[in-house]
Amino acid sequence: MTSKTKSIKKNKFIVFHPILIGLYPVLALLAYNIIQLDPIYAVRAIVITLLFSILVYAVALLITRERHKGGLLASLTLLLFLTYGHVYNLLENKSYLGHHRFLIAIWLIVYLLGIWGIFSFKKKPRNLSMFLNFFSAVLIAIPVFQIAQFELRHTQPKATTNPAVDSIWQPQAKAPAGSPDVYYLVLDAYTRSDMLKKEYGYDNSQFLQDLRDLGFYVADCSKSNYSYTPSSMSSALNMDYIDNFASDIMTENRSFYDLGEFIKHSKVRQLFASLGYQYVTFDTDIWWLDTTDADIYISQYSSPWQKLMNFNLLGNFEKYYMRTTGLRVIEEFANSRQNRYGKALLTTEKAHYDRILYNFDQLGNLPSTAGSKFVYAHMVAPHFPYVFNSDGSFNEDENARGAYTNEIAFLDKLVLVTVKQILAESKVPPVILIQSDHGLAESVRNANLMAYYLPNGGEENLYPDLSPVNSFRIVFNQYFGANYPLLPDIARSASYQDPYNFTVVDYPCPVK
Fold first, then answer.
1. Structural domain tally of the chain?
2. Residue 342 has what pLDDT?
3. 434 with 451: CB under 8 angstroms?
4. Domain check: are 283 and 395 in the same one?
């Protein structure tokens, strides 16, 4: 091989930095928000960004007719376009630069100067291309490593172990024929009745009386053991306080979304499986809450991939990602003009509305499903976004005054219809636990709703200040021969920013 041939091969390295620089913003955004969403919901944004980066690179090569300058032009274009929204967020309302008309002008000047510099190179900018290749590879390795680390940590489901619970009772045989189905209906962020009236001026006493008329026991002084869903639901479904089964998460001060594994593979689920029950759960569109490996997983979609192919729906991650790029200008212009296209991009709330209605509809049909069932139906309502008007129509302004209580007004009707259907169509009287994981306002965050239907004498074990940590202890004791002692009903409040720094709170019982 001649020295000339070696020199040609040496110079013929691949210029790939435009592709990596194009992918970095979306991967970095995913890595930053990884604890709040399943990476699968970012796949579409990643694929579209990759194709867009390739297209920009191809056009730049056609313009420059040279790979080094073409790569620099593509990287400059992608960098400015994909970071515009980030810069705008930093400057918005802080100075005169925080307006599109000024920032766009600055961006165009920087872009034109960059183009001038690229075309002013006397020689092929080979060394700069090599540096950008290396720099972009190191840059993109950081979010890729964070995402991979997260995925590895959450790939293998772990069965919950807790000697304090395991040593008391374990089913020795399948439940006998005629054992009741168990329905656990969670209404996310539904505030206890007295606090609902005090804080929001809404009276749901008729709803509670209708439940009582159906045979429910309503715990008037109920309180949630924790003030946020991950800790509250993991505690309820493992029949204990989290320091007894997730002490490592607390000690290491890890994200409380890690408690999601204790929700998905809880002690209650294990016990019902040992009793021969099917586990039925629903799509919530929340990665740390969705138990897709349940015996029956109810969703409008046959798989997450089918959901990704629904191009009528723009996910929360995609919406936020758009606002970090140059598309923010287009989106805000479209929304300001109430353009139909702009509204079509904001369908996450409508998808949430459709999901709640679909899940309630399927919940009411479950009595016809063969076999014994433990049904965990976590409805992310009346949690924000408030998508229901009081008549059940779609609420287009979730920030409107009274949106929270309007949603509760409709949910009350929907719950009653569904419960009546379950009671009417069940061959054996079922156990139905209606509970909220917590309240809404910070001042009454642990004041939650609890209304239980425990047939054949189960109501005798209930009391006004019941908390979720004891719910399934009572159920297993009453209907399956367990002998769990009841734990003290303690409400532990903490902030979202410091979720394990608890303060014990209590609320006076309503005066009758």
1. 2
2. 42
3. yes
4. yes
